[in-house]
């Protein structure tokens, strides 16, 4: 039985690794063949493996078929739909999901994620008629960044868009609007500035948490504590179960009621009620299934052990939503439960709570390390300590007080007092976590090859085995690749170039054998900082943990917005810019000196800046890099007058690679300039469907007429090549994933 269940789970989870989906006709044919194998005992696991794989692929096909076609992307449509989930209101923007979408236009997805700038209040359960400019699912693709396209597909969101106008057709019902009204009520209570944390814990709305809060939670590995997850649901169910047990032991439980069935039933009811309050998102549904199976196991089938219920929960979750395997939370939650079962079950002797809790934290922190690295997530070095303190604090103080305070809000004074106390405990916790985060930030490890990752996973597994087993210490040796990973450094005299995919902005990494330079740091829009979310993680993933130079072409937000985040995350020896006076003083930037030259590992660098600039774009610091006769010219946002001044400077501008200035704006890349550079390859860094129309069709025509082959981050993701090899360029979007549009 266990073999078959494990085979079914493996078949369902294989979807995550597919570069492309087999055609539907082939899946149906294979499913029929696999069904026949179920009638043979020895071949039944293979049949379950195949059926699970076919079901997952068919589900992915249906989700992809319900996405916006590329030819409709960028157009505005009138449509109707009902708001689902809790709208996110911050910085004057309302973001929400629209379900059951209908329209006169064929081909629109049934579920959308929309943003309404300066729009009216939008509540869950309302039905709206909207004019929205839709975009097909698209995300940034970098060495390390959040996979937005996979996230959208896992939620079966077929398009994103911006609302231009709207009309409320139907108000929310009493039940549908309950969560939204409760969220509004929670945000109005006095809770020591931690109203957002209480709303996150009670109704699953994290919009009240600031970017600083998220940074602290990530640095300390406690993100799972401030959003409703499986841990909260299971803790509440366990707390209810323990309360019933306490009543039984003290003789307070009614004798006519069998305590165990009632304890299990009440615990499950509490978990389902909490799940409903949280909106039954995928992690919560997964947790409710696991709680139900564990309680059933405790009530009737305890002799089956822990692994069979865990496999049953895994199969049920994936059968219900095969796309859950695209979300990192799926792997981390099931991985954590499996590690706890491995660590705490089947050991000789018994552990007291003060022994079991530290060992559980040690096991999960070490055991989840390969998963975190494989998923490209940061590793909190202080996570075991922070969780050792925060898990019982949140589970036994903050969450119970927040839930009781919410339930008792109708009683004047009582509910508010409990929420005030929950906010106080939450504020104390955040202060402590802030100190821990300042002491030791999270670690972003360099990416590992498949072989290095497999060795690490085997080493970690061996270290988690019971003490006394032979060769257990060999696990330490197998973990060594983590500290000696191949960083793929360029050969002496060459330069590795990465044009990161940062949307409507610019960030280029140039790395020699022993040095690293970052040209621009990507944009920042309010709390959304590309420097923090994309640039710094990508640098660490590539093995860059410090910069010799951060060169900010000029101070516009799309070029220098992420600079402070990058400076916070790693040491930087020097910051140079064409607009020092507009940069934050904390960067300690120096002026770009026109004509400055230096050499790193036989790779030559040259700077130029127009002294007579009249605006910010013209002040851009231009960089030329030359390796073994192959040149790259980075031009920032210079326009035609600045290009003319650069041509008049007398510099030899002929280059094989040219970054088109100002993201391909019409104001730059004149025919004269392109002819003087005579580049074979042109690079464009911009956001898909940006509001500026970059790159302009005239620029594309001029570049094509000059014989230039163009590469666009919006179409190919992050771009990389090795200067000095006269080789071709590789775009990360070319690495096939079935959910990505190439």
UniProtKB/TrEMBL annotation:
GO terms for cellular component: plasma membrane. SMART domains: Lactamase_B. It is found in: Cell membrane. It is a multi-pass membrane protein. Gene3D superfamilies: Ribonuclease Z/Hydroxyacylglutathione hydrolase-like. InterPro entries: ComA-like_MBL, ComEC_N, Competence_ComEC/Rec2, Competence_DNA_uptake, DUF4131, Metallo-B-lactamas, RibonucZ/Hydroxyglut_hydro. GO terms for biological process: establishment of competence for transformation. Keywords: Cell membrane, Membrane, Transmembrane, Transmembrane helix. It holds the Pfam family Lactamase_B. The chain crosses the membrane at residues 20-39, 46-64, 223-247, 259-277, 306-324, 330-350, 418-437, 443-465. The keyword Cell membrane applies. The keyword Transmembrane applies. Residues 504-688 form the Metallo-beta-lactamase domain. This is Competence protein ComEC. It comes from Azomonas macrocytogenes.
């Amino acid at each position: 039985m266990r073999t078959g269940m494990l085979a079914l789970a493996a078949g369902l989870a294989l979807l995550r690794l597919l570069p492309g989906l087999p055609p539907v006709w082939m899946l149906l044919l294979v499913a029929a063949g696999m069904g026949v194998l179920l009638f043979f005992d020895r071949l039944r696991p293979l049949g379950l493996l195949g059926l699970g794989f076919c079901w997952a692929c068919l589900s992915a096909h249906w989700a992809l078929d319900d996405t916006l076609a590329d030819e409709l992307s960028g157009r505005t449509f009138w449509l109707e739909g009902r708001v689902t989930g809790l709208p996110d209101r911050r910085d004057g923007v309302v973001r929400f999901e629209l379900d059951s979408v209908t329209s006169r236009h064929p081909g629109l997805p049934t579920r959308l994620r929309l943003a309404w700038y300066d729009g009216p209040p939008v509540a869950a359960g309302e039905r709206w008629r909207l004019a929205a400019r839709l975009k097909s699912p698209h995300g940034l693709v970098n060495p390390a960044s959040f996979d937005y396209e996979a996230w959208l597909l896992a939620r079966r969101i077929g398009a994103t868009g911006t609302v231009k106008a709207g009309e409320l057709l139907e108000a929310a019902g009493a039940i549908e609007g309950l969560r939204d009204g409760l969220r509004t009520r929670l945000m109005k209570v006095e809770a020591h500035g931690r109203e957002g944390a209480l709303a996150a814990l009670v109704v699953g709305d994290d919009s009240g948490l600031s970017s600083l809060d998220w940074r602290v939670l990530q640095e300390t590995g406690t993100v799972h504590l401030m959003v409703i997850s499986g841990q909260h649901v299971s803790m509440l169910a366990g707390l209810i179960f323990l309360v019933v047990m306490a009543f039984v032991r003290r003789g307070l439980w009614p004798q006519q009621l069998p305590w165990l069935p009632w304890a299990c039933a009440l615990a499950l009811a509490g978990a389902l009620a909490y799940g409903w309050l949280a909106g039954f998102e995928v992690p919560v549904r997964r947790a409710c299934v696991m709680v139900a199976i564990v309680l059933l196991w405790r009530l009737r089938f305890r002799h089956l052990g822990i692994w069979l219920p865990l496999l049953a929960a895994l199969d049920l979750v994936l059968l219900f939503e095969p796309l859950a395997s695209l979300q990192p939370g799926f792997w981390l939650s099931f991985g954590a439960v499996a590690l706890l079962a491995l660590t705490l079950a089947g050991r000789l002797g018994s552990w007291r709570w003060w022994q079991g809790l530290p060992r559980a934290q040690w096991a999960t922190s070490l055991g989840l390390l390969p998963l975190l690295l494989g998923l490209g997530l940061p590793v909190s070095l202080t996570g075991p300590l922070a969780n050792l303190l925060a898990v019982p604090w949140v589970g036994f103080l903050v969450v119970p007080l927040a839930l009781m305070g919410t339930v008792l809000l109708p009683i004047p004074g009582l509910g508010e007092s409990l929420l005030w106390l929950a906010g106080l405990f939450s504020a104390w916790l955040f202060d402590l976590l802030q100190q821990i985060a300042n002491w030791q930030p999270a670690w972003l490890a360099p990416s590992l090859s498949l072989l290095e990752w497999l060795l690490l996973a085997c080493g970690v597994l061996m270290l988690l085995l019971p003490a006394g087993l032979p060769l257990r210490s060999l696990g330490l040796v197998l973990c060594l690749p983590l500290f000696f990973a191949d960083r793929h450094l360029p050969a002496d005299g060459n330069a590795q170039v990465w044009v990161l995919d940062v949307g409507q902005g610019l960030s280029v990494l140039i790395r020699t054998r022993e040095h690293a330079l970052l040209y621009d740091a990507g944009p920042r829009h309010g709390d959304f900082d590309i420097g923090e979310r994309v640039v710094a993680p990508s640098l660490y993933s590539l093995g860059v943990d410090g910069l010799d130079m951060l060169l900010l072409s000029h101070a516009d937000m799309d070029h220098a917005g992420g600079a402070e985040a990058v400076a916070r995350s790693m040491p930087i020896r020097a910051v140079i810019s064409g607009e020092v006076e507009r940069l934050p003083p904390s960067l300690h930037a120096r002026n770009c000196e026109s004509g400055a030259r230096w050499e790193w590992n036989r790779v030559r660098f040259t700077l130029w800046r127009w002294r007579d600039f009249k605006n910010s774009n013209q002040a851009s610091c231009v960089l030329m890099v030359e390796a073994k006769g192959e040149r790259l010219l980075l031009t920032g946002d210079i326009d035609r007058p600045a290009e003319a001044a650069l041509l008049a400077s007398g510099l030899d501008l002929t280059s094989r690679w040219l970054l088109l200035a100002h993201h391909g704006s019409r104001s730059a890349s004149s025919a004269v300039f392109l002819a003087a550079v005579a580049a074979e390859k042109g690079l464009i860094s911009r956001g898909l469907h940006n509001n500026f129309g970059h790159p302009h069709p005239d620029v594309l025509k001029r570049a094509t007429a000059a014989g230039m082959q163009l590469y666009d981050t919006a179409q190919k993701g992050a771009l990389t090549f090795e200067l000095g090899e006269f080789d071709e360029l590789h775009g990360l979007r070319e690495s096939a994933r079935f959910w990505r549009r190439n």
